[in-house]
Amino acid sequence: MPELPEVEGLAQFLRERASEHAVTAVSIGAISALKTFDPSPDALVGATVVDVSRHGKWLDLMVATSTGEPLHLIWHLSRAGWLRWSEKLTTTPVRPGKSPIALRVRLDDDSGFDLTEAGTRKRLAVHVVRDPEDVRQIATLGVEPLSEEFTPQRLAELLAARNQQVKGLLRDQGTIAGIGNAYSDEILLEARMSPFAMTKSFDEEKTATLYAAIRDVLTGAVAVAAGRPAAELKDGKRRSMRVHGRTGELCPGWDGTPCGDTVHEVSFADSSLQYCPTCQTGGKPLADRRMSRLLR
Questions:
Q1: How far apart are CA 138 and CA 79, in angstroms?
Q2: pLDDT along the chain (296 residues), means of 10
Q3: Which domains does the chain have, with CATH numbers?
Q4: From CA 134, how far away is CA 115, in angstroms rounded?
Q5: FPG-type domain: from which residue to which, for each copy (predicted)?
Q6: Residues near 47 by beta carbon (within 8 Å), at least 6 away in sequence
Q7: By 3-state DSSP, what share of the chain in percent is helix, strand and coil, each rounded to 5?
């Protein structure tokens, strides 16, 4: 699933290529992906793209209609969705149910993009709204971790709000927006902390360490994603991971010095986390048991 750094990279990519272009066509390939009906996608046709931004893991393409009314095409790529950009879109019509294309947007120079989704579990979500806050999942997002509002004090308040495992807190979009399974693994390696550490055990020093790890990991990942074409962002993310998705490989160490241990895994119902026992849990492997409450 694309997380904050990749979604920010996609926003930058689209902003550079789509801004000031008019939308000439919107085609729906998967009606199940469209979560709103008023305004309709056709309301975007003739409007001019004025900005592309990000809300957590959500992308927001803002257009100005001929009447000056702003509209927002907002989407969440979920686990198997992606954005496929083309400098010259094919003229072959989108055939609902016959391809992985959920939505196609064509611009006035015949460039544009497809939102695609692989697999059978369809979770890609597309909204056309007048205000991003009309999307409930955006209205309830937590603090942006790279914003000025996210301070060590704010993190301390979030940690103290209720006692839960730190892995779950980092992934909770209503608490901190944009961090998912992959970057929470990377953050906890950087912080040298167990994913099962309880949040109310955090003192000022541990909170400062976690805060620094969040900012450093995400800032570095955003820098890696910046300027990359959409087609390269997935591979760039995979290559940058030190523990996530690297079960059984040698741990490169939280500071870049290999620790000699291998990356371990804990599996859940439909996901898993990776960590290094030497770097994060005092050399003790974590119990590999299903704990679905971490997947909120």
A1: 18
A2: 94 96 96 94 97 98 92 95 95 87 97 91 93 97 98 98 96 97 98 97 98 98 90 89 96 94 87 96 84 40
A3: 4-139 (3.20.190.10), 152-295 (1.10.8.50)
A4: 21
A5: 242-281
A6: 22, 23, 63, 64, 65, 66, 71
A7: 35, 25, 45
